[in-house]
């Protein structure tokens, strides 16, 4: 007879002294871990609930401007520095870590229409209603010196926007035409127009650095190549586009913030159909900015809220609003992709977390592991109705909420009419136009 | 561990064969070099072994799902293996790695950890979703291989009992085993002589350190049976029908003659639950914190012990319930009835999930093994049957016992114990994950009284027996899982660890509504409701938004795109689609005809009109 009984030596399983860590032998056999899926589901549910509990995105409000904030600019080299221009011609430079204004310049008379930093971070440009382009040093003047711009260019017409080239000493302004300037000269290298209208914004492509996009109030978005004297092509939409933003990771993708409450993500190569129509705002979208990862963007709207959209989703994943925040005019996603800044009508710049429930500061390794695990669980069970409902739920101000309901009814009525028309007409004579194609009027080359 | 290999596997790869053919006659000056090469690489046997064993699938190879669909076959990317065989890696020193590549994993072990049933086809979906699903599958595959590889780190080996050649292990008596094993194990065999409080029911705590037992004359006690330290001892002055530990050893429930009572580890009565009256059997579902009670009145009641609410009270409509067991795999309760059926219950449903006709007479005992694969039943017809719970509940084996088994229990490693009046028989399966074979018992033991309760101790090779003469702790080598998981049920946990575990367990309490036959269903794609939703959407919209648009030929280069050619191309595609449709309908027709033909086969009879 050969016999062996299971006999464990407790010394292998119990810690030796109280100072030791407890021993935890593991066995991953599935029979010892029954109900794996239901337990993971419950964990995912708990994680989703906690995410909503900890969703406190608002970090700080930077006050100091004496009029509505009209434009924002990020510093290319310093994460903590932000520039803002207001409607009274004042430019302020902020330190985000201290949450204080470090410099104030009375830059223009009337609005500061546009502000942009040079790629090296040593200077910045502003344009204003006083028909000037001013070039400023980033550092303040020394003791006893006067606050003066490095250069001032006097133009003939009002400039409404400015953007600097990503690599060269070239910048572009827009107004009645798109002008490309050399920093050293006082007259533009070239001016490009297509029709006669006021152009509201111009943006350099961050990767294909010779490309520019602009949007004008005659409802079109025009693309230019700096190396040519003429524009490339344009797309005409239903309503006017306020601004565009290029995807920093995919050179050919850009998103346009439109007056018809939608955002359109275009592929530059095929402008006749947008890649995605982003719907959720209930008023005109005024500004848009991409996250440095290129996966998401943030939009500011006249409806007093900002929303975060994934690039490939038509609905927003997040909406931020506060009682005091009025029409949001400009928005920026910081270069570390962790924060969002927005400047609004009531003179404040607000700082938000990009991920509402994220814990700030250094995480311990256990915290990090738990966070990653919860993230994976939430991802795995995101489509379960109960979890989806909790993850999607957002409190909205009454004005936005009722607007959404109203627009839903209107949309439903339009759809019903369309379907009725389809039903009662000769087959093939009426076709359903998909949402993506509905808002594009024409593409001109 | 041996793995099933394909018949053609042992044949050498084609290229290798070619090499052997071309082999030059050996020269004496070559001898040294070839010898060293042979010494460095064991050659063909190693190759053979490696061919048989499973290697981790690289994510690169996820795009060949068709081939990897065959379940249970070693999946090995072919190309890399061949490359490896042909040009083994050499170090700078010229030495060859004798075991190149990642460590092999036995197929059987990897299968244990595999969660995805690859025999099921993925639902039809868009290419993006599909590729995502495929990536997820590949990840799971990799995880299962990693888990299988970590099996190497397990510290303990299971126990065993083997006779000398020809010796029947069933003849070996407990005294002989006790004599042969070490002192610590021998101390696990003991008898408690408690004849005056008459037949005992007993229960081990989930970690296996504690034993609670209650006698029919009201004697209730719990003890740390490893150290033999008595935790509490009371007399409830009432007949005790059943006793069961709740989620930890600090609480236990006692089904007394009238009501259900809950005591703590000092024997203080915490609750008297009057809504559960005349309870005959108790079962505790640890992950749901549900105490299931079967009563004489025919009700199956689920009590949530974490909040103290009754979750469901189900009327089984089958008279007195006194045979009950839980399925540890899916928390479904099995009830045995006097008409020979076993019904499966979940608190989410008012009706049984399934009913299985098991015996001619009434069902006396039911037990389900820890993997939820096999169910053992015994009935008044003196039969002991084993059923497969996967799929159609097929009986696998049956055996008639002279007295019939009154009590059944499965151990963690799949041993089946049956109590027949004062004899206990234990059967063992052939290997892991196989049902116990009922021909030859593995062990037998005769007690001093009639068996009234059986319970295998978790994580110890011990079977607890409650009988009319008291309690017996019987040694059953090879019954228990040798390696416990420290985060689930840890027999050596400290009080602090227990408290932490309790908080976590409460946070992860699985809702009672999720109990169903397949606990993995929650992670699968719900195709039925998806299709339903799609249908509703089409109805609501008035058209199918995902429908394929009619073919529109793309304009070709200048001069090649005449109207006639456009129409021709359009016609071509349309004709092809039409042909496909006709072919499909033709394929379906014979099947339909067969279906229709079947009822006509039997000759019509005048009595058919009475068939309902």
Tell me about this structure.
Chain A: Belongs to the WD repeat DCAF13/WDSOF1 family. Chain A: Keywords: Nucleus, Repeat, Ribonucleoprotein, Ribosome biogenesis, rRNA processing, Ubl conjugation pathway, WD repeat. Chain A: It is found in: Nucleus, Nucleolus. Chain A: One of its GO terms (biological process) is maturation of SSU-rRNA from tricistronic rRNA transcript (SSU-rRNA, 5.8S rRNA, LSU-rRNA). Chain A: GO terms for molecular function: ubiquitin-like ligase-substrate adaptor activity. Chain B: WD repeats lie at residues 356-390. The complex is a heterodimer of chains A (445) and B (612). Chain A has 445 residues and is an alpha+beta fold. Chain A has a domain at 59-353: Methylamine Dehydrogenase, Chain H. Chain A contains five helices and 30 strands. A five-stranded antiparallel β-sheet of chain A has the order 15-16-17-18-30. A four-stranded antiparallel β-sheet of chain A has the order 2-29-28-27, with no helix packed on it. Chain A has a four-stranded antiparallel β-sheet with strand order 3-4-5-6, with no helix packed on it. In chain A, a hairpin with a 3-residue loop joins β16 and β17 (220-225). In chain A, α1 (36-53) crosses α2 (365-380) and α1 packs parallel to α3. The longest helix of chain A has 26 residues, at 398-423. In chain B, 24% of the residues lie in helices and 26% in strands. Chain B is built from twelve helices and 29 strands. In chain B, α6 packs across α7 (127-149). Residues 1-21 and 31-86 of chain B have low confidence and may be disordered. In chain B, the strands form seven sheets. Chain B has a four-stranded antiparallel β-sheet. Chain B has 612 residues and is α+β, with helices and mostly antiparallel strands. The two termini of chain B are 56 Å apart. The longest helix of chain B has 39 residues, at 563-601. Chain B is globular and about 105 Å long. Classes of the chains: A alpha+beta (445), B alpha+beta (612). Chains A and B meet through β1, α1 and α4 of A and β1, α8 and α10 of B.
